[in-house]
Amino acid sequence: MRAELEALSRDISKSVALLRRRLDWDVALRRLDELDALSERSDLWNNPQEAQGLMRERNRIQASVEAVRQLERDLSDHVELAEMAEAEGDEDMIEEARKGLLEAKTRADRAELEALLSGEADGNDAYL
Fold first, then answer.
1. Axis-axis angle for helices 25-39, 3-23 (nearest 10)
2. CATH class of 9-116
3. Measured between alpha carbons, how far is 39 from 54 in angstroms, rounded to an integer?
4. For the chain, which end, N or C, has fewer CB atoms within 10 Å of the first or last residue's CB respectively?
5. Model-level pTM?
6. Residue 119 and residue 128: Cα distance in Å, rounded?
7. Do the beta carbons of residue 108 and residue 15 sit within 8 Å?
8. Would you state the pLDDT for residue 126?
9. Rounded to an integer, what distance in angstroms lies between the CA atom of residue 66 and that of residue 32?
10. Residues 53, 45: Cα–Cα separation, whole Å
């Protein structure tokens, strides 16, 4: 595979690893399972405030997990495409794989920045 594609692949892999660490992957998956189970309770909406908080947390974790999984799928798909294109000498497919990896890199960079700015007070306004 060409050097540029390999560099993009490495960068995306590093971002995915950082996102998994920042999310505390195993804990997030367990918590998501817990929240899914809680959200299926028949008495969930007896306390609307608690239910809304639970659903907000569930949706936030679900979105983060899905973003990481999508990046992993895109990385795998585009690397496979690039390898097939290299083997066949198909420059158009190589370019398609490069564009896909660039798009995935942009999303990975954005997700990485969002993960770094996801602390307790990061959603609050700041006055300078």
1. 60
2. mainly alpha
3. 8
4. C
5. 0.83
6. 19
7. yes
8. 64
9. 11
10. 11
